[in-house]
Amino acid sequence: MTDKRKVICIIAVLCVVFFSLLGIILVNNSGGGNTACIYSDGKLIKAIDLHSAEEQSFTVNSEDGGYNIITVEDGSISVTDADCPDRICVMTAPISDGIQPIVCMPHKLVIRIETKRGEYSLDS
């Protein structure tokens, strides 16, 4: 086998391993992570099971007098209105998995999808 073929085989094996691990991680994240946890100033204020929650909207008031309107629909959660100056939280797409949280820095609000804590959790 020439050196060129060895390099190509090594690269192909590494690609297969990488994409297999990526697939396993994505399947594990999408299966168990369906609880939206809403934190205000670092404190959990509400947890919503996105698979069984009804469509709803509610307001979270921050300590600085501001507000965020949060909407749950179609198995996802989003911030649909806020009075913060940059409104990045409103422009963030609805989330339904644990890949990216929604954050409103001016109001110290964080919404992230967390996996259900089961009997094998490190916190139990």
List keywords for this structure.
4-stranded antiparallel beta sheet, 27% helix, 2 domains, 3-stranded antiparallel beta sheet, 2 helices, 124 residues, elongated
The assigned structural class equals: alpha+beta
Which of globular, elongated, flat, extended, rod-shaped describes the shape? elongated
Give the C-alpha Rg: 20 Å
Strand tally, please? 7
Range of strand content? 25-35%
Helix content: 25-40%
CATH architectural arrangement of the largest domain: Sandwich
SS summary, helix count: 2
CATH topology of the largest domain: mini-chromosome maintenance (MCM) complex, domain 2
- CATH class of the largest domain equals Mainly Beta
Secondary-structure element string: HEEEEEHEE
- Give the distance, in angstroms, between the N- and C-terminal Cα atoms: 53 Å
- Sheet with most strands: strand arrangement: 2-1-7-6
Kindly report the average pLDDT value: 85
CATH H level, superfamily name of the largest domain: N-utilization substance G protein NusG, insert domain
Low-confidence stretches: 117-124
Number of discrete domains: 2
Main β-sheet description? 4 strands, antiparallel
What does this structure look like?
The chain has 124 residues and is of the alpha+beta class. The protein folds into 2 domains: 1-32; 34-114, mini-chromosome maintenance (MCM) complex, domain 2. Helix content is 27%, strand content 34%. The strands form 2 sheets. It has a 4-stranded antiparallel sheet, with no helix packed on it. A 3-stranded antiparallel sheet has the order 3-4-5. Strand 4 and strand 5 (76-82) form a beta hairpin.
